[in-house]
Design a protein that fits this description.
This protein is an alpha+beta fold. Helix content is about 30%, strand content about 25%. The protein starts with a strand and ends with a helix.
């Protein structure tokens, strides 16, 4: 397993990742390193107190924006305007809520203070973006964030404090991205939630071809 030099922004080729998808350890979360990593589909995911772990899973779970599926149960949410969606209105609040969200099978959060600081900086630089989902009364009840590079959005995390709020935000985002010419959303790992929305698995080779 390669340990990264904090002084040099470089990564091994994604094909050298181990069977679990771990590519490298160490380095830092400087914006230049993060943007370089994402340009090759590499992302950090680790626990507090541990070295930074860099991942490149195979297969890769993605969603092509023209393959979005909206279930019948979700349509009334849009027809009735149950929620309101904004973009980049409060990125710090979204990542803070994602960090605090309790998830099945996980103890604590992988969105450490350092991660929050790094992605807030990427937001300030115009690369990280958030989706906020609000009730008509103005309460923030859902959202998600990720990195936009070219025609690919790299999804990072989402949260929900009301029924289908995160799904409402994700569907809204996909529609908005497609309207802007974005073709692909990187979902990283398969979940039933994302699969129900039209996500699918592709090989690392195909994913790298799409990135290029």
């Amino acid at each position: 397993m390669m340990w990264l030099d904090p002084e040099t922004i470089t990564f091994p080729h994604p094909s050298t990742a181990n069977p679990d998808g771990i590519l490298a350890l160490g380095g830092d979360l400087h914006p230049d390193r993060l943007l370089f990593a994402y340009s090759y589909g590499i992302f950090p995911w680790y626990n507090a107190g541990e070295p930074i772990v860099w991942w490149h899973p195979n297969p890769r779970f993605v969603l092509f924006t023209d393959q979005l599926k909206v279930s019948k149960s979700m349509r009334p949410y849009f027809n009735q305007g149950k929620y309101r969606v904004t973009y980049d209105h409060d990125f710090p609040a979204v990542i803070a809520n994602c960090s605090a969200a309790k998830r099945r099978g996980q103890y604590g959060t992988w969105i450490t203070d350092d991660m929050r600081d790094a992605y807030n900086e990427l937001h300030d630089l115009g690369f990280a973006h958030s989706v906020e989902v609000w009730t008509p009364e103005g309460d923030l009840v859902g959202g998600l964030y990720g990195i936009l590079l070219g025609k690919i959005f790299f999804g990072e995390s989402m949260f929900s404090r009301a029924n289908n709020a995160s799904k409402f935000g994700f569907i809204s985002l996909v529609r908005e991205l497609r309207a802007q010419g974005v073709e692909l959303i990187d979902c990283q790992q398969k979940t039933p939630h994302l699969a129900s929305l039209g996500g699918s698995s592709i090989s690392r080779k195909r994913f790298l071809e799409l990135l290029e």
